[in-house]
Amino acid sequence: MRRALLLLALAAPSLAHARAPQALACAVIAAPEGLEAQLADSVLSRDAERSKPALDTLHALVDRCAADQFLADKEREAYFGYVLGRMARDGLDPRLKAEGIPSALIDTALDIGPGNANNPATQVTQGDLRRVANALADAGHDPAKVTPVGWGLISAWIAATAQMFDALRVLD
Predict the structure, then answer these.
(1) Which residues contact 97 (CB under 8 A, 6 or more apart)?
(2) Could you count the other beta carbons within 10 Å of the beta carbon of residue 155?
(3) Residues 63, 65, 70, 75: is their CA dihedral positive or negative?
(4) 28-42 per-position pLDDT tens digit
(5) N or C: less crowded end of the chain, CB within 10 Å?
(6) Model confidence over 104-129: pLDDT tens digits?
(7) 121 Cβ partners below 8 Å, 6+ apart?
(8) Residue 118, Ramachandran bin (φ over 0: left; ψ between -120 and 50: alpha; else beta)
(9) Residue ranges of the domains in the chain?
(10) Using alpha carbons only, what angle is made at residue 135 by residues 89 and 82, rounded to the nearest 5 degrees?
């Protein structure tokens, strides 16, 4: 028993600073089925009242995982942003596919992903949408045929991605 407590005490600081993939995935793994779709709806609608139940559920999950990982308040807030962005992307991806828009194309066009620029973003710009439109055209998809729903999904994907990577910068 004493050995287990010693090992736990030695491991705790490294868990708080290492941000192992399984630590980042804690809330995602613990989430009830369908939460990613609800969070995607939250990012799409930007309606705080309608999003409240999903965000409350996410806060509870994040609080539990943050306590397990000994996260300070600033890290806890960043972890919430990370999980919100990550799970919203999980909910948006199949919707983008249904519209014929590969999410990887958006990520490539905007230099998003591990080892890429992942520029911080407070809003989706016309430049972002132009880069995505050019990437669609280069891939043989006519950007003029993207529906308003499709452009809304693209904008939500960009916002969720920015949220996720902005939060990761704080957690690293």
Answers:
(1) 103
(2) 17
(3) negative
(4) 999 999 999 999 999
(5) N
(6) 999 999 988 777 777 766 678 888 89
(7) 128, 158, 159, 162, 166
(8) left
(9) 21-171
(10) 20
For the chain, give the DSSP string.
-HHHHHHHHHHHHHHHHH--HHHHTHHHHHSPTTHHHHHHHHHHH--HHHHHHHHHHHHHHHHHHHHHTT--HHHHHHHHHHHHHHHHHHHHHHHHHHTT--HHHHHHHTT-STTS-----SS--HHHHHHHHHHHHHTT--GGG--HHHHHHHHHHHHHHHHHHHHHHHH-
- Structure token pair of residue 166: 């902005």
Give per-residue pLDDT as tens, 10-31. Answer: 333 333 344 566 778 999 999 9
Measured distance CA(166)–CA(160) in Å, rounded: 10
